[in-house]
Amino acid sequence: MESLKPRKTLVEQVYERILDAICEGVLPAGTRVTQDELAARLQVSRQPVMSALGLLRQQGFLVEHGRRGLEVAPADRRHFDAIYEFRSVLEPWAAALAADRATPRQIERGRALVEQGKRVAAAGDAHATLQADIDFHNFIYEASGNPLVLESMQLHWQHLRRSMGEVLQRPRFTEKVWREHAAILDAIAAGDRNAASRLIAEHVREASERVGAELEAAERKAA
User: Fold this and answer.
1) Fewer CB near the last or first residue (10 Å), C or N of the chain?
2) 121 and 144 both lie in a single domain
3) What's 149's domain CATH number?
């Protein structure tokens, strides 16, 4: 018998819909958001929208803007840089732990994730490619066997989605990203903690450079 998964609350569903719209550019930075408009678009009451907006504001996705009320926060370059600094320390350690602890079943799942990522990237599906990238890194966090690793990164990945989506739409980047993912997984499967740690450190550093270049281009355009 399979375990029963609890259904998401209405607040959780509304939160995810609004967050997706922000991260995917449907609601770009500076867009004013109101309870009434969102409730009408999502066909729900104002209460779950109010709760979801409060959480998004607390997490930095929305900001107060005087009489305009809430609006989508601009991407904060310093915040992204801080996240990548954090990743540069956390992920090599997580990959090393995964090389020590990953089970054959987890390795099999990792290979399936890599193949799925290659397929959606080749198909040019930007949304699915970004989700596949997130899923692969979450796989490493889970395979590390330390639940605090996954908990520490979940919120940060939502902020990264806003800039990574643009980078992962470029074929030359996506092909390289998934080659790197495959090499990291091979090192984990071989139990080579040093190689796994080194490869993911290089992967995170290059990702930081790619995303940083994208943010700089956006800042220049806005200026």
Assistant:
1) N
2) yes
3) 1.20.120.530
Global confidence as pTM? 0.79
Residue 3 in any domain: the answer is: no
- Rounded CA-CA distance 149/134 in Å is 14
Q: For 78, what's the count of Cα atoms within 13 Å in the CB-facing half-sphere? A: 0
pLDDT digits (tens, 9 = 90+) for 91-116: 999 999 999 999 999 999 999 999 99
Q: Do the Cβ atoms of 80 and 160 come closer than 8 Å?
A: yes
Is 66 found in the same domain as 91? no
Which helix (H) or strand (E) is 63 found in, with range? Answer: strand 62-64
Q: Are residues 94 and 143 in the same domain?
A: yes
Quote the DSSP letter at residue 65.
-
Query: For residue range 55-94, what is the model confidence (pLDDT) as tens digits?
Result: 999 998 999 987 778 999 887 778 888 989 999 999 999 9
Instruction: Round the average pLDDT of the chain to a whole number and report it.
Output: 88
Q: Which amino acid is at 180?
A: E
- Within a domain: residue 4? no
Which tokens in the block code for residue 99?
């090389």
| CATH assignment of the domain containing 58 | 1.10.10.10
CA dihedral angle for residue 152, residue 131, residue 172, residue 180, rounded to 10 degrees: 50
Spatial neighbors of 68 by CB under 8 A, at least 6 apart, are 32
Domain that holds residue 203: 77-222
Decide which of 53, 72, 91 is a domain's last residue: 72
